[in-house]
Structures are given as C-alpha cells and as structure tokens.
Amino acid sequence: MGKEQSPNADADEDARLIEVDFPLQKVSQESVCEKNIRHGHISTLHIYWARRPLAASRASILAALLPDNPATRHEYLKLIEQLAPWEAVANGGSTSPLQRARALIREAFGGRAPRVLDPFAGGGSIPLEAM
Question: How far apart, in whole angstroms, are the C-alpha atoms of residue 59 and residue 22?
C-alpha cells in the first residue's frame, strides 16, 4: 500500500505496522489539506513554525503502536486511513474508528493504554494525538 515491505517483516514477531506498511498517500493528502486550513482548526490557535500535521502525527502513532500481523494488516491500514482526516476526530473522540483504534491499542498492550513520549514535542502534535 504505502512502501515496499522489508524481506524479514513477516518473520519479526515484534514488528509494528509502521515498519512494514503505511498508507502514505492518504495521510499525505490529509496533511496537505490540514496545512492549508486558515481558521477553525486547532492548529490555528497559535503559530508554531515547525508544527507537525495532526493527521501525520495521529497516523504514525497508531501505526507505531499496532503490531504487524499479515492477517489484520489490511484492516489496520484502512483504520489509519479513516482516522487521518480531521473530521474523524474533531468531535472529541466519540467516533467508532477512534474507539476501535483505542481498543486495538489497549489489546496490543495487555489491556492498558501505553505511555507515549516525544522528547522533541515542540508544538505538541505528537503528545496531543497520542491522547
């Protein structure tokens, strides 16, 4: 879907989805749209010149937290594509794709949400989307 698969990706039991595949085209499209929004979006509250698009942050966090499994890979990639648009999360996280993503993450981490650290947070896009 997004990039070439590494030859050993299916053999690695601890591989994360982002290491194997990523819906780059969809996430890039949403990131471009987000960068062009001039009002009514959370990113316009304060100008931070090196801000990362929320769509890219949200998608990369989810892909990094979900384990890679050839049986569920296509489903997970579709879920990431569904969550890339701002509208998917704009109403406070009550959408079913976001609830599904949170449930999958908890399942992957033994029933609890993992801690996500970004020591170079800058504008806070990654910690914000990890919530």
Answer: 9
Reported as a single tens digit per residue, the pLDDT across 57-98 is 999 999 999 999 999 999 999 999 999 988 888 776 667 899
Helix axes 24-35, 73-83, angle to 10 degrees: 10
Token pair for residue 113?
A: 């949400």
Write down the domain spans for the chain: 15-130
Rounded Cα distance, 118 and 54, in Å: 14
pLDDT digits 0-9 by tens, 10-57: 556 789 999 999 999 999 999 888 877 666 666 666 666 667 788 999
Helix axes 73-83, 96-108, angle to 10 degrees: 130
Look-up of token digits 């569904």: 82
- Rounded to the nearest 5°, which phi and psi values hold at 8? -100, 10
Query: Are the C-beta atoms of 35 and 53 separated by less than 8 Å?
Result: yes
Cβ atoms within 10 Å, residue 67 = 17
